[in-house]
Design a protein that fits this description.
heterodimer, A: alpha/beta, Rossmann fold, 6-stranded mixed β-sheet, 5-stranded antiparallel β-sheet, globular, B: alpha+beta, two-stranded antiparallel sheet, 15 helices, elongated
């Protein structure tokens, strides 16, 4: 089976200057493929989150190159990067980060309204579909702050999916969830990757979660020590 | 949907969920603006009132013969000789030559509303032993009334009496009191030329200005010429009113081209009074501007607080694809909404204050409070209100646009 590269890095490195100069990640080169469920693991402080934020295009202070598709991302202006994130990357964070004043539906709709590809009615329809797929249709009009943690995390997944991005990035997406909700989120991710061909790149310290993903990259002291970690 | 609308929608939601703070921020603008409108209108009302008061006795433009200084008959400057001379005023007569031709010419100008000739006479009022110095204005009453609205200053008697009766006089209230005379009494008037006439008091007026009321009287223009022993073409001054009393200097210069006599705008004549006026209106503008600036800081503060509390939201918006300029738009929009609410209320309350004060009776010659609606005040208030709020919103918005989402997510 031929694998299409959706994201690749060449020699990415990043320094932190506080409290002392220190290289957080060093010479990271890897490729992520279309429809792949990829996890990044490593001990606390190994640089896995730092790497994810470099991949996310939000952190631009790194050396090396980042490609999404065949496009060189490194060196683009922040406004262009914002547009790329809007179009091609969805985010799921550990602390769901919904906008508390808005309803769940609205939270899901906002990135799509920003993209402006569809009419308001179509966006609303699509947002309902995403929420329905995640079992949240009846919660759609509630304020985001009124939902449980697991439900909020599913809303943020719906939000990440609304623009049908090529890549969905997760920073400890299950870090704050109980095992039942973790299982739900995991199933959703797997479905997204395998049925819809979107790529998942998730940072996790949950071994079970990583074990069940397609491929696991392990980092230690800012370097990749395994591109396809096999669990015993 | 359009890109713009989601920014506006977010701004609106922020405002809606923070009603109290929005109202507090807007009220600062409201108070500043209503004070600005109120005091600016008050100042312009006072200026207008004092101008109308002045216009009762002075014309917008005055044409008269200026005193001349004697000049040496021969110019010695070229010959190298030094002439020691003693220059002095050599005005032979205050008369304007051929006044009626000039008057016609002035009346033909499009910007002149009224023009009237006048002959001023220095005189004494006599009643038995008592004597009072005064000035007589010899006028054609119809013209003078049209210009100075003398009718509105009349306390008693009939203005039209001096239109035809050469022996009638209309005296100031102060003159009547000092000379102890009333309507239809006789008064003896003597001029500096030695002419003495017994005249009948046909009316009494008051201008509200004591020194004028105690010296001035109106008489027929021919009577004034008789007092000066002059003929019917002897005119000392021509007064003209123009369409815009704020531009008397400009129009005086225009009229100057018609004649060799001196043309002077009232703003030149009364420059001292007007400069007082100007200082008053500057003071009246400074205080509310300061209030507005404070209100601006209020908005700045509230938006700054909002932004600190909304760091997470800003980070998530940026992560999901909102650019720095979108964030600026959202928060500036919030300032604009606060500004619109504050400005709208401010304009309303300002207008209300004016309406209330217009019905406050001050008494005396001023009557009701001299305060008016002036469109320019409202327009400049609205512009100021919006500029200050947008300015106050811009800096916190800029700060928000610089929030680094990675910093927030990694905490």
């Amino acid at each position: 089976m031929k694998k299409d590269i959706i994201l690749s890095t060449k020699g990415i490195g990043k320094y932190f200057y506080e409290p002392v100069k220190f290289k957080a990640i060093d010479d990271i080169s890897f490729e992520a493929y279309k429809g792949e469920f990829l996890t990044l693991v490593g001990k606390s402080g190994c640089g896995k989150s730092t790497l994810l934020y470099c991949l996310s295009t939000m952190d631009t202070a790194y050396e090396g190159q980042l490609y999404i598709g065949n496009e060189l991302i490194t060196g683009k202006k922040t406004d262009e990067l914002a547009a790329i994130r809007n179009r091609s990357i969805g985010f799921v964070f550990q602390f769901h980060y919904l906008l508390p004043e808005f309803s769940c539906l609205k939270n899901v709709m906002i990135p799509a309204q920003k993209l402006g590809k569809y009419s308001y009615a179509e966006i609303e329809e699509r947002a309902y579909q995403k929420l329905e797929a995640l079992g949240l249709k009846d919660q759609a009009l509630k304020p985001a702050s009124k939902l449980s943690g697991g439900q909020q995390q599913r809303v943020s997944i719906a939000r990440a999916l609304i623009n049908d991005p090529d890549i969905i990035m997760g920073d400890e997406p299950t870090g704050n969830l109980d095992s039942k909700n973790t299982a739900i989120v995991f199933d959703i991710f797997k479905q997204i990757a395998h049925e819809y061909g979107q790529t998942i790149i998730a940072v996790t310290h949950d071994t079970d979660f990583a074990k069940a993903s397609d491929r696991t990259i392990e980092l230690a002291d800012g370097k990749i020590i395994s591109h396809d970690l096999k669990f015993e | 949907m359009k890109k713009e609308s989601i920014n506006v929608e977010i701004a609106r939601t922020h405002i809606r969920t923070r009603r109290k703070q929005t109202i507090v921020a807007a009220l600062g603008v409201t108070i500043g603006l209503s004070m600005y409108i109120f005091s600016s209108s008050l100042m312009s009302g006072f200026s207008k009132y004092s101008k109308t008061e002045m216009a009762k006795t002075i014309a917008h433009v005055k044409v008269y013969k200026e005193d001349q200084i004697s000049k040496p008959l021969y110019n010695y400057a070229d010959s190298g000789m030094v002439l020691i001379s003693n220059p002095r005023t050599v005005t032979e007569s205050k008369n304007i030559n051929d006044p009626y031709t000039l008057l016609d010419k002035i009346r033909q100008q499009k910007y002149v509303t009224y023009a009237a000739p006048q002959v001023n006479v220095d005189m004494f009022y006599n009643n038995g032993e008592s004597q009072l110095k005064g000035i007589g204005s010899g006028v054609i009453i119809a013209d003078a009334d049209a210009m100075f609205n003398i009718q509105s200053t009349m306390l008693a008697g009939n203005l039209q009496a001096i239109a035809t009766n050469l022996d009638a006089v209309i005296i100031g209230k102060g003159v009547a009191e000092k000379m102890n005379v009333g309507l239809d009494d006789n008064i003896t008037i003597s001029s500096s030329q030695g002419i003495v006439k017994v005249m009948k008091i046909a009316g009494i007026f008051t201008t509200g200005n004591k020194s004028i009321d105690e010296s001035k009287c109106y008489i027929h223009i021919s009577t004034a010429q008789q007092f000066l022993k002059k003929g019917a073409t002897y005119i000392t001054e021509i007064y003209a009113n123009i369409i815009d009393d704020d531009k008397s200097i400009y129009y005086a210069n225009q009229l100057q081209q018609l004649t060799e006599y001196k043309v002077e705008g009232w703003e030149t004549t009364y420059a001292d009074t007007l400069s007082g006026d100007k200082i008053r209106s500057i003071m009246g503008a400074i205080i509310p501007t300061v209030i507005l600036l404070v209100a601006g800081f209020g908005i700045y503060n509230i938006l700054n607080m909002t932004i600190i509390q909304k760091m997470n939201d800003i980070a998530i918006l940026k992560a999901t694809g909102f650019a720095g300029k979108d964030i600026i738009r959202i928060f500036v929009m919030e300032a604009v909404i606060m500004g619109i609410i504050g400005t709208g209320l401010g304009l309303g309350i300002g207008a209300g204050l004016i309406k209330v004060l217009q019905h406050v009776w001050v008494g005396g010659p001023s009557g009701y409070f001299p305060i008016y609606y002036k469109l320019s005040v409202f327009v400049s208030a609205a512009i100021m209100g919006m500029v200050i709020t947008v300015g106050a919103g811009f800096f916190p918005a800029l700060k928000a646009s610089r929030v680094d989402p990675v910093d927030i997510f990694r905490k």
